[in-house]
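Hi U.,

Before I forget, here's the chain from the pilot set. I'm dumping it here mostly so it's searchable later in email.
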Amino acid sequence: MELEKTDKEIADLIKKEEKRQNSVLNLIPSENYASKAVREALGSVLTNKYSEGYPGKRYYAGNQVVDEIESLAIERAKKLFGVSFANVQAYSGSPANQAIYFALAEPGETVMGLALPDGGHLTHGWPVNFSGKYYKAVQYGVDLQTGLIDFEDLERLAKEHKPKMIWTGATAYSRIFDWEKFRKIADSVGAYLIADISHIAGLVVAGVHPSPIGIADVTMTTTHKSLRGPRGAIILTNDEELATKIDKAVFPGLQGGPHNQTTAAIAVALEEASRPEFQEYGKQIVKNARKLAETLVAERLKLVSGGTDNHLMLINLGSEGPSGKEVQEALEKAKIIVNKNTVPGESRKPFVTSGIRLGSPALTSRGFKEGEMEKVGSLVAKIIKNLESEENIKQVASEVKTLVEEFPLD
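Structure:
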């Protein structure tokens, strides 16, 4: 291995991380395992090439092969999602969202998005993010009783503030998005509707979550998470005028040359996602999440909205119970990886939180089915109910070891 000869320290750390990933149950819903084919494309000679511009219109010579690769990625994205336009150059989800803002709104204009503590994303207008600093951001939320998006309040806020764009999509919302309801509200105030499906793109492709294509003006997705690709993003639309603005916003508006190795890896992931086995994989993600949620509820743990329709769920530990940070750390000792997360009505600080977020994509990629997910749910509950017991943690870690050895990573 050449890396070991050149930089043994980094080579050893990579091996250490590989061992860590193999030895834990990863329940973080925004993480997944890319295939060997995707990883091969990421580590290819394509990293050597600069390609400012778009296929057929580059600022550097020698881009004939890169043009073919990017064109292939674009065509595969268009076919998979059923759109007439796709930009595959954005470096990741946040830069892609930034490009959408840059294309469709002027600094200072009003935008709306789901509040971060209620499951939204930083780039949907949260105050510490560029989207909350350079735009007048209005945040809508969920009903604290049901955990569901409060469309009545959303409509009231939209009519009061007349936003230029309304963002939908989330990082911690466990129910189906009603795109038509969002469309109706957006139309009533003349706003663009932007759907961020980064978390659920694989479910949309598999047909287990409704698609926003043809309803939202622009759709954005990252290419990892439930799509199992590299860390990249795709911006989609059927509107020619918006397509032109988006291309210009990505380059030259915000970026220089695209990462060609990532573009190739995206193309590979899209090819994998077009296969019948991926449809089954997406369906299994949802089945596994539902079984995990059912198990946690049966263990008398409180889930935001009471369960899940997609790939993730939030456990609300309560303001008087253990913090999300404490639970996250105890679970990690037992080789179960989750992330602390805010919950609707959050009273604790973001680095402490009153909840944890769990999801099924990574374990589904390992081959877990409902039976294993039920076991995982029981192990999670066992730790939460007895955080202080080192003996309990050791016992759960031993059971995790058995599970991961039965389902090794590729």
